[in-house]
Amino acid sequence: MTERNLEQDFDSLRADIDSLRKDLAQMSRAMTDLAAEKLAAAAEQARESVDKAGEKLGEAGAAARARARQGAADVEQRIEERPFASVAAAFGVGLLIGRVLSR
Fold first, then answer.
1. pLDDT digits over 23-69, tens only?
2. Do 79 and 86 form a contact (C-beta atoms < 8 A)?
3. Model confidence, pTM
4. How far apart are CA 5 and CA 12, in angstroms?
């Protein structure tokens, strides 16, 4: 009788171990799937952040180019308004640079 109980206990233990193995495999697959989903979401969020940063950088570059063009236009307009003063100022700056470089 004890042999029979022992065999039944071993069979029950084998069944429990097999069930545990299946449960662990299923849990492992679920955790892997969850990790993959979270990784994909994080990658998408990073892509969106990079895209937004690129857009902002492009906007800042366009604004800087516009300010530079406006500044060049302002300087050109002042030169056209006072050509002799502009030539005199350029001559004076040239003299100063020449003095500084000759030392």
1. 999 999 999 999 999 999 999 999 999 999 999 999 999 999 999 99
2. yes
3. 0.49
4. 10
